[in-house]
Amino acid sequence: MRIELPARLAQVHEMRIPIRWGDMDAMGHVNNASYFRYMETARIEWFRAANCMVDPAGQGPVIVNAFCNFQRQFEYPGDIRIRTYVGEVGRSSFDSFHVMTLADDPAQTPCASGGATVVWVDFPAQRSLPLPAHLRDYLARLPFA
Fold it and tell me: What are the structural domains, with CATH classification, of the chain?
């Protein structure tokens, strides 16, 4: 099953991630699980920049689902350019998306794309909460295309 990224997105972050030797599997290409690590790394870096880090004793973002579409394989050595986007924003959640390309590809042909739904939670109470005001304000100012 292929899950399409929505047309209405706002780019919030971009970074480069080196492909590590250990990311490869026995077939000589990057293991599928590594793509989820790349998306996680980009999402965490964006969370840090947006001031919405996890407080295990309080509140923070939690991923409630994730997907990845594999279009072209990555191989070592190389660098990945990963762009992070925000989609639909709800009361206590928002959708995040990523597009991964080879950093040195002038055409920036997608090699993989994926995403996750992020829910803001109260960890001790084990329940969702409305997005904090600073995050909701940040998300409301995004230039959605």
Answer: 10-140 (3.10.129.10)
